[in-house]
Amino acid sequence: MDFIQNFIKNFIMKKVLYAATLILVAGLFAFTPVINPGLEIGSALPKSDLKLKDISGKEITMKETMKANGLLVMFSCNTCPYVMRNQPRTKEICEYALKHDIGVILLNSNEGYRNYGDSFEAMQAYAKEHGYNWPYAVDKNNELADAFAANRTPECFLFNKNAKLVYHGAIDDNPQDENNVHRRHLKEAIDETLAGKEVTVKESRSVGCTIKRV
To answer: Where is 159: in which H helix or E strand?
Structure first.
């Protein structure tokens, strides 16, 4: 009799624990923020009218930043070693885009580091040090990083004159070593877009630090 009672008791306890686990898991998913699975090539520029605080102190939008031939959106920061290592390449490609009437905006989505090296004041100092001649804005609450499904710094999104995504990924094929770059993906995408051609390499893998979301 004791054996049967213990068997029933253990069976019931297992069922209760199983049910509790399901409830806990369901609760975790309920409070997990849902992030866009990713912008597909051809997607429209998301949240183009969202007001952003630029290092100039002014509020700007991506729509206002866009120029006649498109817009380059780059997720960046002050603290990632990959961003710092790629800084000359970042400056070169941003100046190249502006020269060809493509707007440029860098977005800092590192909300987790906002009280440290990615504060607004630190962004201003970093931009001044590296001679930024384009907007560098705070992505408050990671709103744009989530809309773009951006995960790395640096990570690039090139939109054509119709505000459609034509390229997403890295600046080139070797973020670790500039001396061994074989293909400059972003520059090639810009040139092909300006020529009215379809971009050959539409996506590449971004290599860098993870965006520090809140």
So the answer is: strand 155-159
pLDDT tens for 6-61 read 544 554 454 434 443 333 333 333 333 333 457 999 999 999 999 999 999 999 99
Three-class SS string for 87-146?
A: HHHHHHHHHHHHHCCCEEEEEECCHHHCCCCCCHHHHHHHHHHCCCCCCEEECHHHHHHH
Give the whole-angstrom CA distance, residue 37 versus residue 206.
16
Task: Tell me how far apart the alpha carbons of residues 203 and 49 are, in angstroms, rounded to a whole number.
Answer: 25
Length reported for the chain: 214
The partner residues of 138 in beta bridges, in order of sequence, read 53, 108
Structure tokens at 208: 């860098």
Q: How many CA atoms lie within 13 A of 196 on its CB side?
A: 0
Q: What is the pLDDT of residues 117-130, one digit of tens each?
A: 999 999 999 999 99
Is 182 buried (19+), middle (13-18) or exposed (0-12) by CB count in 10 A? exposed
| 209 neighbors 83 (Cβ within 8 angstroms) | yes
> Tokens standing for 79?
């603290």
DSSP 170: -
Q: Please state, in angstroms and as integers, the Cα–Cα distance from residue 31 to each residue in 20, 27, 112, 147, 151, following that order.
A: 17, 6, 18, 18, 20
